[in-house]
What we know:
CATH superfamily of the largest domain: DD-peptidase/beta-lactamase superfamily
Radius of gyration: 26 Å
Shape: elongated
Strand content: 25-35%
Strand order of the largest sheet: 1-15-17-18-13-12-16
CATH architecture of the largest domain: 3-Layer(aba) Sandwich
Number of domains: 2
Number of helices: 9
Order of helices and strands: EEEHEHEHHHHHEEEEEHEEEEEEEEH
Amino acid sequence: MFKKIITLFILNLFFYGQAYSNIEIKARTAILQDFLSGEILFEKEPDRSIYPASMTKIMTSIIAFDLIKSGDLQLDEKFIISEKAWRLSTAGYSSMFVMVNDEVSVENLLKGIIVASGNDACIALAEGIAGTEEEFAIMMTSKAQEIGMSNTNFSNSSGINDPDNYSTVRDIMLMSNYLIKEHPDFYEWFSEKEFTWDRTGGDPITQGNRNPLLYKNFGADGIKTGYLAVERYSLSSSIMRKGRRLIAVGSGFETKNARSRESLKLLTYGLTNFDLIEISKSDLPLDNVEVWQGKENTVKIYTKEDIFKTIKKGQKKKLKVKVVYDGPIEAPVKKDQKVAKLKIIYDQDLIGEYDLLAQKKVDKVNIFSRLIKSLNYLIWGDV
């Protein structure tokens, strides 16, 4: 048995034109992630504490989506509107315009939160799920910790001004990533440009989405704006372009126009400076490895996860992908047995290493066949 190395050539690249040499984003803090590879393409003080404002509502929605996914909450379930929720529809905040004792469905409350950014809808949903907004905020913080948001605490469901409601753009990025990955169908609601609520006892109310990027022909499909006087303007945004998704989060933009302009600039930077490379798709055969004394001479190998890498544009030649194993692999081989390693090398540096598994079992041949194979190997070097 001896170590074998198979070098693979990766050709599935996305090209987006000429790259910038550098970039300056006019925000206090910002981050940009390539969604499929998970790699950070730009950051500016990403762990600086911020007040997330209405970006808080992403987590409010996630709590409901998780409960719906588990079967503990239904979209057509109705919650009764409290006076506390109603007061936020009359105090100049962004609102869905609920009325006391209205019975509003979970689906309408969620769309009121996602599209209309209704603070009243947030409280109504929080109270309906947890009994009080305070208990719901505990659920939000617990979920934040679960998904790795280590610098975040939620004290309310809407993001209205509270010094104990804080986060970072890195944590908001992690939250946005979780939303898109775990709830892709519900995530489509974040791209809806308007929501009409046929409210009780009044004319229907139609409100537009506050995300300015949705109205530009750029491919944006989310996620959530925010504003507080102390924090200024913020935005968690995402685009999908030819199968590639980017997530950008920025806070401390001075004006609405700056928020829109600088977020577009950041997303464009990701598209034009980097290539996304597909290395492997989960459960699909990547290559074959040789098998010794098996009923088959080779077995297909695969990775359990999708593997993508992001590299600087024009640096394709610096990327190498190798399958490394001590082989031939001696039979019997079990299905899903670890038989090799996938090593990804960029500019002579190892940037990733993953287990490669056998796609099916390979039984050992009988003693007579093993003898013949051994003689063939001794004579011809043939397995």
